[in-house]
Amino acid sequence: MARIRLYIDQPLVAGQPVPLDGAQAHYLSGVMRLRAGDAVTVFNGRDGAWAATLAEAGKHGGTLDVGAQTAPQQDPPDLWLVFAPIKKARTDFIVEKAAEMGAARIQPVSTDHTNSERIRQDRLQAHAVEAAEQCGGTFVPPVADLVPLSQLLDGWDPARRILWADEARVGPAEALAGLPPGPWAILIGPEGGFSAVERAHLSRLRFVTPVSLGPRILRADTAAVAALALWQAALGDWR
């Protein structure tokens, strides 16, 4: 399999050329120094991984020739990550690790104590693409735009349960093995924690399950990784 993997938002069919935009062409020819005929692995998030060769690349674009499929599509379990954005680099880290660890959707939310009032959704989506390219995945989780947590909860489908990483529950990490399967979301709060009003709201919702992530208070980015790992090991595709 080719060393370079590239996400292409195009249908992939054996024997069919696919266009490259200027940034992709520059990455392959200018950054990675590929030449015509060199091999690339491509995926579109829907149809698995495919062998391809670089046909041409210039300043304004290029073309890949698609060969045979090399791996089937591997979709993650139906798990969302809902989190409050923090500092830029650490928010990038959360998105990258969520993509690597098998989140099906990434939903930033604003809370009473959220440090960031806005995000660059396109930049975070690019980080999710890069993570899938680098970790060998064939699925790219969509990164939604920032919404208020209260608005998200008001329209929430109760069939999707929420695992709330409650920073107030410092103690032994709680086993998740007894929780029901099905669609889930993990909720990670901001650096300052949820406000009293938000905590009261979450506590009233029957589809929300609060859990401890262990005996230490974790930073928000660490908490996201820990919660994803616990859920994947108990209910996801790590079993």
UniProtKB/TrEMBL annotation:
Keyword Cytoplasm: yes
Domain Ribosomal RNA small subunit methyltransferase E PUA-like: 20-63
Keywords: Cytoplasm, Methyltransferase, rRNA processing, S-adenosyl-L-methionine, Transferase
The organism's place on the tree of life at top rank: Bacteria
Domain Ribosomal RNA small subunit methyltransferase E methyltransferase residue range list: 76-232
Protein's UniProt keywords contain Hydrolase: no
GO molecular function annotation: rRNA (uridine-N3-)-methyltransferase activity
SUPFAM superfamilies: alpha/beta knot, PUA domain-like
GO BP annotations listed: rRNA base methylation
Gene Ontology cellular-component terms listed: cytoplasm
Catalysis: reaction(s): uridine(1498) in 16S rRNA + S-adenosyl-L-methionine = N(3)-methyluridine(1498) in 16S rRNA + S-adenosyl-L-homocysteine + H(+)
Pfam families hit by this protein: Methyltrans_RNA (PF04452), PUA_4 (PF20260)
Enzyme Commission number(s): 2.1.1.193
Protein task: Specifically methylates the N3 position of the uracil ring of uridine 1498 (m3U1498) in 16S rRNA. Acts on the fully assembled 30S ribosomal subunit.
NCBIfam families attached to this UniProt entry: PRK11713.3-5, RsmE family RNA methyltransferase
UniProt record similarity statement: Belongs to the RNA methyltransferase RsmE family.
Name of protein: Ribosomal RNA small subunit methyltransferase E
